[in-house]
Design a protein that fits this description.
Elements (H helix, E strand, L loop, with lengths): L3 H7 L8 E4 L5 E3 H17 L7 E5 L4 H12 L3 E4 L6 H11 L3 E5 L3 H11 L2 E5 L6 H6 L15 E6 L9 E5 H15 L6 E4 L7 H13 L2 E4 L5 H7 L5 E4 L1 H8 L6 H4 L14 E6 L5 H11 L5 E6 L10 E5 L19
Parallel strand pairs: 1-10, 3-4, 3-5, 5-6, 9-10, 9-11, 11-12, 12-13
Antiparallel strand pairs: 1-2, 7-8, 13-14
Helix pairs in contact: 1-7, 2-3, 4-5, 7-8, 10-12
Length: about 350
């Protein structure tokens, strides 16, 4: 019995007491505790009729339980569909009508409006908190052991809707092997290990937050400082004790505008080395090309001699490394290929 993504990302951490998530209230969740919570949430899904291949629409806040819901969806063989928390009710109605989920999970503050969509679509509704049946409270009463549902590499694991710039948003289907191969490629390229500590301030309804940042951390066994929202001061406070930062151009712009964002607190360390005198590796990502002026300024502010940084452009989850644009800085002895800005494929 195998489940491609679950076996590689989650099940391998059974009994692992190393820290996985550090939350805003300083609570630390170990890998093993996270797996037990995942099993509890998976029981809730199964009890409420979620079958293998069913879609779960998630428009929820960034919580440890939301991450566990993603893992539980994988373990139960369902299809995880995260949606922007800023979507209007009309937009949400379109996505629900198109995806036809068997369950919808939302913030309790939105339950009065979302319940109407759930009733119309025939989907079960669960919330984080609130009057409606709470997913978290239901999970509290469940067993910490769950029999993982078989899923093959080509079975669907997630759906992500396009931005809709050229028409109505369309659901992009991502299977278990798509997500796993990308995580494996990025862990190797970025040199992520269980010694790393990631500052995770990205949203978890886009590609990068759950399927890049989380999947690579899980695969490598890294520690994640999970921030519920972008907080510039908190990020700056976390940098000296962290080794990995992922962001987008807007993210970088706000960092660069703050006088506290200096080489002294970032000290970007070389990838693939054990050097701890310098700390952070940066892996900015964008669905649009980051302007070279912004990226060059980011490098000048953060990079020291010997540092590698990367700029992920137009990352395509179906082709793991083809559109990953590496920018090499201040180093001539790298064994990785040099890529020109905006280039694709092999040099």
């Amino acid at each position: 019995m195998t489940n491609t993504l679950c076996d590689s990302l989650f099940a391998r951490h059974e009994g692992n007491e190393a820290p996985f998530l550090q939350l805003d209230d300083d609570q630390v969740v170990s890998y093993d505790a996270f797996l037990k919570r995942t099993a509890q949430v998976a029981h809730v899904l199964q009890y409420n009729g979620v079958s293998p291949g069913d879609r779960i629409v998630v428009q929820a806040p960034k919580l440890a339980d939301t991450i566990a819901l993603y893992a539980a969806s994988v373990q139960a063989g369902a299809v995880y569909l995260p949606l922007n928390i800023a979507y209007t009710l009309a937009e949400l109605d379109y996505f629900i009508s198109d995806a036809q989920p068997s369950m919808i999970v939302c913030d309790s503050r939105d339950e009065i409006e979302v319940v109407k969509l759930a009733v119309r679509s025939g989907a079960k509704l669960r919330t984080f908190g609130g009057v409606y049946p709470s997913l978290s409270s239901e999970a509290d009463a469940q067993s910490c052991v769950f029999e993982t549902v078989d899923r093959a590499p080509n079975d669907l694991a997630a759906l992500l809707y396009t931005s809709g710039t050229t028409g109505r948003s369309k659901g992009a289907m991502l299977n278990h092997q798509n997500l796993l191969s990308n995580a494996q490629a990025l862990v190797g390229l970025w040199g992520i290990t269980n010694d790393d500590r990631l500052v995770h301030a990205l949203p978890i309804f886009h590609t990068h937050g759950p399927f890049v940042a989380m999947n690579t951390s899980l695969l490598a066994g890294a520690r994640v400082r999970l921030m519920q929202k972008f907080d510039l001061g908190a990020i700056l406070d976390e940098l000296p004790q962290s080794t990995l930062l992922m962001g987008v151009p807007t993210f970088n712009t706000r960092l660069l505008a703050d006088d506290r964002f200096t080489k002294e607190i970032t000290l970007l360390r070389p990838s693939g080395t054990s050097c701890r005198a310098s700390n952070i590796r940066a892996a900015p990502n964008s669905s649009r090309n980051c302007r070279e002026t912004l990226w060059e300024k980011f490098k000048r502010t953060c990079c020291t001699n010997g540092t590698r940084t990367w700029n992920c452009r137009r990352q395509n989850l179906s082709k793991p490394i083809q559109t990953l644009n590496q920018i090499k800085t201040f180093r001539s002895d790298t064994t990785l290929p040099f890529r020109l800005p905006n280039s694709l494929g092999d040099p």
